[in-house]
Design brief:
The structure holds two protein chains of two kinds.
Chain A: E1 5-7, E2 10-13, E3 19-24, E4 31-38, E5 42-50, E6 53-57, E7 64-68, E8 74-78, E9 87-94, E10 103-104, E11 108-112
Parallel strand pairs in A: 2-11
Antiparallel strand pairs in A: 1-3, 3-8, 4-5, 4-9, 5-6, 7-8, 9-10, 9-11
Chain B: E1 3-5, E2 10-14, E3 19-21, E4 24-26, E5 32-39, E6 46-52, E7 60-61, E8 64-69, E9 74-79, E10 88-96, E11 105-106, E12 110-115
Parallel strand pairs in B: 2-12
Antiparallel strand pairs in B: 1-4, 3-9, 5-6, 5-10, 7-8, 8-9, 10-11, 10-12
The chains are: A mainly beta, B mainly beta.
Chain lengths: 113, 116
């Protein structure tokens, strides 16, 4: 158990809908990362937060947004969902900004029908 | 931008044998970190081993070891005495030492099957 908790584990929704994925980092970790894993594109970095502030942005669509709250949990919001958004969404955390190891949650499997 | 390449989509090894997974990367940075992560069918990403680029000594964790060739930008993973529980996707990952962000760049993965 990595200590990173993601909910929900599975989610099925329809095109055009909006969903929110939640991540609780390991106790004491200030940095949270979101990754998308799809069959054809592997693991893609979406966004990173550190202590509530956005620190790095990757290939995140404009329809997606994220935030990190004062209690350090993070949410990834996906809107106007398309079939191609079906993927496994991972959250990871680390204690510092430039640490060498990320601790991953079990992921949220999103299926868009 | 950094890139990570894993040229072996799938590999198979018999139990108790040794297997080597390949990884190459491209970067202009001099100091960075390299990782191998394992993703079993349970799908959670688990760190297997890490290597800091400024350390010349190859990292070792029990049955797992790496062959880090900095000049060649190569970072292979050797699994000795393979066990059925090693069956998983293995991802090579790069992390630059930018000081402001520490995202990982992953390769496309190698699916390893350990057979009896």
């Amino acid at each position: 158990d990595s200590g990173v908790t993601q909910t929900p584990k599975h989610l099925i929704t329809a095109t055009g809908q909006r969903v929110t994925l939640r991540c609780s980092p390991r106790s004491g970790d200030l940095s949270v990362y979101w990754y998308q894993q799809s069959l054809d594109q592997g693991l893609q970095f979406l966004i990173q937060y550190y202590n509530g502030e956005e620190r790095a942005k990757g290939n995140i669509l404009e329809r997606f947004s994220a935030q990190q709250f004062p209690d350090l949990h993070s949410e990834l919001n996906l809107s106007s969902l398309e079939l191609g958004d079906s993927a496994l969404y991972f959250c990871a955390s680390s204690p510092t900004l430039d640490t060498g190891e990320l601790f991953f949650g079990e992921g949220s499997r999103l299926t868009v029908l | 931008a950094q890139t990570v390449t894993q040229s072996q989509p799938e590999m198979s090894v018999q139990e108790a044998e040794t297997v080597t997974l390949s990884c190459t990367y491209d970067t202009s940075e001099n100091n960075y970190y390299l990782f191998w992560y394992k993703q079993p069918p349970s799908r959670q990403m688990i760190l297997v081993i890490r290597q800091e680029a400024y350390k010349q000594q190859n990292a070792t964790e029990n049955r797992f070891s790496v062959n880090f060739q900095k000049a060649a930008k190569s970072f292979s993973l050797k699994i000795s005495d393979s066990q059925l529980g090693d069956t998983a996707m293995y991802f090579c990952a790069f992390q630059g030492n930018t000081g402001t962000a520490s995202k990982l760049t992953f390769g496309t993965g190698t699916r390893l099957q350990v057979t009896l």
